[in-house]
Amino acid sequence: MNDYVEKEQKIRIQKEHDSIYQVLIQDGGYVSPNEYLWDDVLISIVLKKPVLLKGPTGSGKTKLAQTVSKFFNQPMHSVNCSVDLDAESLLGFKTIIQKDGVTTIDFVEGPVVQAMKKGHILYIDEINMAKSETLPILHSVLDHRRVLTNPFTNEVIVAHEDFTVISAINEGYVGTSPMNEALKNRFVSFTIPYLSGIELKKVVINEYPNTSEELIETILNIGDDLRKQVVNGLLSDDAASVRSLLDAIGLAEHMPVRRAIQYTISEKLDDKIERRLVMELVDTWVK
């Protein structure tokens, strides 16, 4: 039985016999904001489509990639993009080594080469922060060819059957730029929203099982108000970060809720008016 069929069967078995939410919650993994997003990402990966995750910081893009890695028992190699990212950071570099008294030149394989050869997941984070001239080297890796000619060694690398690419972007953030169309067209794109409602509560309870119901409800109510203001355009996306909300609960177990929200959410916002609005929303729930 080939790997493609095995992966398809694993998805089908899980859908037939388990609650996806419950399975992933128990593993401490990603929880889908709806009934289809997680399934659709898995289907795309099984079909060997490079996946692009779009969403604000703290929405769970990296957690989703980590959960895919755990679900398929497939190790993940990460690339954190920046303006300093170059071909060596992606593919590897040559180095001089001494062995048995002989000096030789060796090639240290980078994350792209390792993932392609071993059939692992390549996770490219904040892909729209890389310089536009750096990423075209991956075009042949991301399309139907799934092949790479290493410019440092001239080795032609054909991707392992299980090789998977997942990328993530934070759109509209400082330091980012629109993705090159040739690169974007190689991905299947998914919008990853912030969790809310029952899904968010499941994540919170899993993260902090011993926290009081009262504290959880207070923080979730504050989070709901923050999301509404983000939708209304009065707060930036960062204010509704699930990651920050979880951090706030962790601090609020040991200090007043107001200070916990101030440290984890309000103080991270650049705009003074936004910081004030966050604390005003907190004051409607905390007396």
TrEMBL record:
Domain AAA+ ATPase residues, every copy: 47-193
Q: Which domain of life is it from?
A: Bacteria
The record's section on InterPro entries has: AAA+_ATPase, ATPase_dyneun-rel_AAA, CbbQ/NirQ/NorQ/GpvN, P-loop_NTPase
SUPFAM superfamilies from the xrefs?
A: P-loop containing nucleoside triphosphate hydrolases (SSF52540)
Q: Where are the transmembrane segments?
A: none
Pfam families under this entry? AAA_5 (PF07728)
What's this protein's name? AAA family ATPase
